[in-house]
Design a protein that fits this description.
With 774 residues, the protein is an alpha/beta fold. The two termini are 39 Å apart. The strands form 4 sheets. The protein has an 8-stranded mixed β-sheet. The protein is built from 28 helices and 23 strands. The protein has 5 domains: 62 residues, no CATH class; 122 residues, OB fold (Dihydrolipoamide Acetyltransferase, E2P), CATH 2.40.50; 269 residues, no CATH class; 35 residues, no CATH class; 251 residues, Ribonuclease Z/Hydroxyacylglutathione hydrolase-like (Metallo-beta-lactamase, Chain A).
């Protein structure tokens, strides 16, 4: 079972490395693979092949539901059923629709999964919207919507949003267009568990109000994490305790144990009952049912399913008087998860859940220990912390080094105090409201106490260790090192594990040699953020847009890129002007990375605490400095330049030898004309970031002729509402022979500029998998 599960997993993983799905005869190969299982020598290869086929077949099912290109951007009327919990975004509601059909569409479409955002219309008061317009799981709706294919930002170190949507089976996204066509067709049918989760979530928020802990209580009760704010997530991530706010395998297992003990005790109360059915068997049924119910409230997330399967096997063993090794329980859980959803391997939660249990089985099961209970309990946390270290660095590029310290207190407190209060309070919501409220407020107070401790740990500068994400080879070396260090005493070469760990800590990303410039335009949607690297210095130009109160380009794209490059300090930050799509990520950047000097045309937009430190200076033409043979010159604005914020954008020229990059921000025709008059042909640059994202108000013929770029990059969002870059702008650059690149199509774009300009590296082309748009 173990070798078969691992081989099946390896086949699935191999399929996820493909850039395109192969044309294969599924049935013939599957039959051959099943037949080969009967041959012992071919069994491992057969399971590997079957895993590959299973993953490819499931992926093909999802991709075959692609939204037709002709429908992108078109307004359509769709009918379908709301599935899953809607996400409250503050000014909008986001939900998934299982679409039954599109009005007027003649072909067999749509896909089973469409994700829509419904922005709240100003005509409706909030309460009215919540009561009359809010979609509920199981309801059938007719909606007027505008759709597009899944598309997300593609940057080194950033989240693959397209992969995230693919994993969830979402094949189109869009938004609801205001109109009378938006109608609830039928009341809720089916989706019973999701409706229960939604009802409990609403009831908890109603009774607990706006307390900071309300979101955590809701997450522990029904797995609904949407009310946990970014500040709280930051604390959980820095302390390695984010698993506590998921309905994790630990919580499901704890409830299964409580159910087993409770069922066994209750069945034993009447003495005669044990004559008909042994108490442990009755306890097994009760424990399994309670574990299943809690996993259902979690939405059957991978950690919950893993724990549920292991519990089920144990309970079956109680009925059949059999026992299994822990490693076999884990293998059985892996089989079930992979057979139910082979795409689960794309979710970090699967690796962390199975990895943590596997490490505990390896490092602690069957070991002799003469220490006390508290020593063994504390050992669990540092064993998991050390064992998961290579995986955490590989997945996220960071490791909460104080996680064992935080978990040593937080795990028992949340598991044995908070979770029972939450579950009892939730169970009594519709039985005894006063008692339920008392228990839930007790859970809130218990969380407030432990939160003081977690915040104190999180505030320590060394709470989290950031490293550039290791290559698979380096991660494998580190994994071998941790396995050696966790091996039993007496194993030869145990401490050579430290040597195997060295590559993880010694690896450093390559940096430009002296006199060379590496310039990257990040993919931040409809906005701009670019990074210029020299041998020892880094400049960031703009920080991209703020998308919502929870998300901005600084957090989603810029900071992950800097960490991927091993950059912990920015020597100079240029904030070109005050538009959201250029400075929306500023606060997230300042919170995560130290910044030396800030140049900006809008100093009033810089956070006051940063301005008071004296690091902010106005951006004015004539400013010049040189780093390792690379020259930086501000060309615009002058003190007396008129115009709007756009027209007064900081224009920066970065040059090495005769090669240059020009970054003009959002300047328009007036500023372009002044630059051409003042500088003429000296504006020439090999690489140009298109002014104002390719707007028709910029890139005038005179400016394009003066710069005469070899490459022009349009920092524009996919299917943006302004249709940037404008067709006439593209034509002007094409007439000058420039190669045009758009971040919406290429992802992040990197140039290496020294004696010459190397071919641009398109991150989307470099890293795309079969699910990515190209």
């Amino acid at each position: 079972m173990r070798s078969g599960a691992l081989s099946f997993l390896a086949g699935i993983l191999f399929a996820q490395q493909l850039t395109g799905l192969p044309e294969i005869w599924y049935t013939a190969l599957a039959v051959a693979g099943l037949a080969a299982i009967a041959v012992p020598r071919l069994r491992i290869a057969a399971f590997l092949a079957l895993g590959f086929l299973w993953a490819v077949w499931r992926a093909d099912l999802v991709l075959s539901d692609q939204l037709p290109g002709a429908l992108e951007g078109e307004t359509v009327i769709l009918e379908g059923r709301i599935v899953g919990l809607p996400l409250d975004l503050g000014d909008a509601e986001r939900f998934d629709v299982e679409v039954a059909g599109l009005t007027g569409l003649r072909r067999a479409w749509p896909p089973p999964g469409v994700r829509l955002t419904w922005y709240r219309n100003a005509r409706y008061r909030y309460a009215q919207y919540r009561n009359e317009r809010r979609p509920v799981p199981g309801e059938d709706w007719r909606l007027l919507a505008r759709l597009k294919r899944p598309h997300g930002m593609m940057n080194p170190g950033g989240l693959d949003y397209e992969g995230f949507l693919f994993r969830q089976g979402v094949r189109a996204t869009g938004y609801v267009v205001s109109g009378t066509a938006n109608t609830r067709l039928r009341p809720a049918q089916g989706q019973v568990i999701e409706r229960l989760r939604m009802a409990i979530s609403d009831a908890l928020r109603h009774r607990l109000g706006d307390r900071p802990e309300t979101g955590i209580v809701t997450a522990l009760a029904v797995g609904d994490q949407q009310a946990i704010d970014p500040v709280q997530w930051n604390v959980f991530n820095r302390t390695g305790t984010s698993h506590l706010v998921a309905i994790s395998g630990l919580h499901v297992g704890f409830l299964g144990l409580i159910g087993y003990l409770l069922g066994r005790w209750l069945w034993s109360l009447p003495a005669r009952t044990v004559l008909y059915l042994a108490a442990p068997r009755r306890g097994a049924v009760t424990g399994l049912l309670m574990a299943w119910g809690y996993a259902a409230l979690a939405g059957f997330a991978v950690p919950a399913v893993r724990s549920l399967v292991m519990i089920a096997v144990v309970m079956i063993g109680l009925w059949s008087h059999r026992s299994w090794l822990l490693i076999d329980l884990l293998a059985a859980a892996l089989w079930v998860v992979l057979l139910l959803d082979p795409l689960a391997v794309l979710a970090p939660g699967m690796w962390l859940s199975f990895g943590a249990v596997a490490i505990l089985v390896y490092a602690m099961a069957g070991r002799v220990s003469v220490r006390g209970l508290w020593w063994r309990f504390g050992r669990v946390h540092w064993v998991v912390g050390l064992g998961l270290m290579p995986l955490l660095f590989f997945l996220f590029g960071q490791n909460p080094v104080l996680g064992p310290l935080a978990n040593a207190l937080a795990v028992p407190w949340v598991t044995f105090v908070v979770v029972p209060l939450v579950l009892l309070g939730t169970a009594l919501l519709w039985v005894s409201e006063p008692l339920a409220t008392l228990l839930l407020h007790g859970a809130v107070e218990a969380l407030a106490w432990i939160w003081i401790y977690l915040e104190a740990v999180s505030d320590l500068d060394f709470a989290t260790w950031h490293l550039p994400r290791p290559t698979p080879g380096v991660a494998a070396s580190a994994a071998i090192g941790t396995l050696l260090l966790l091996a039993p005493r007496g194993v030869p070469g145990r401490f050579t594990g430290l040597i195997w760990l060295l590559p993880l800590f010694l690896q450093r990303p390559a940096h430009p040699p002296p006199g060379e410039l590496w310039f990257t335009v990040l993919d931040v949607g409809q906005g701009l953020s670019a990074v210029a690297e020299t041998h020892r210095h880094v400049l960031v130009y703009d920080t991209g847009p703020k998308f919502s109160e929870r998300l901005d380009a600084g957090r989603a794209a810029l900071v992950p890129f800097l960490r991927e490059r091993g950059i912990a300090h920015i020597d100079a930050l240029v904030v070109s002007h005050g538009d959201n799509d250029h400075l929306g990520g500023l606060r997230s950047l300042l919170a995560e990375v130290s910044v030396g000097r800030i140049l900006t045309s809008v100093p009033q937009e810089i956070p006051l605490e940063t301005r008071n430190m004296g690091r902010t200076v106005p951006c004015e033409a004539g400013q010049h400095w040189r780093w390792e043979g690379v020259a930086f010159t501000v060309l615009h604005p002058t003190a007396d330049d008129p115009g709007s914020d756009n027209e007064r954008s900081c224009v920066l020229r970065v040059s090495t030898g005769a090669r240059a990059v020009l970054i003009p921000g959002d300047i328009e025709h007036g500023a372009e004309a002044r630059l051409v008059r003042r500088l003429g042909p000296t504006l020439h640059a090999e690489v140009l970031v298109a002014p104002h994202h390719g707007s028709k108000t910029s890139s005038t013929p005179g400016f394009v002729a003066a710069v005469s770029p070899r490459y022009v990059v349009f920092p524009a969002g996919y299917r943006n509402r302004w249709d940037f870059p404008a067709p006439e702008v593209r034509e002007r650059y094409a007439n000058r022979g420039a190669e045009m690149l758009s971040t919406a199509e290429a992802g992040a774009v990197r140039f290496r500029i020294g004696d010459g300009v190397g071919s641009p590296v398109r991150y989307r082309d470099e890293t795309a998998r079969y699910w990515n748009a190209r």
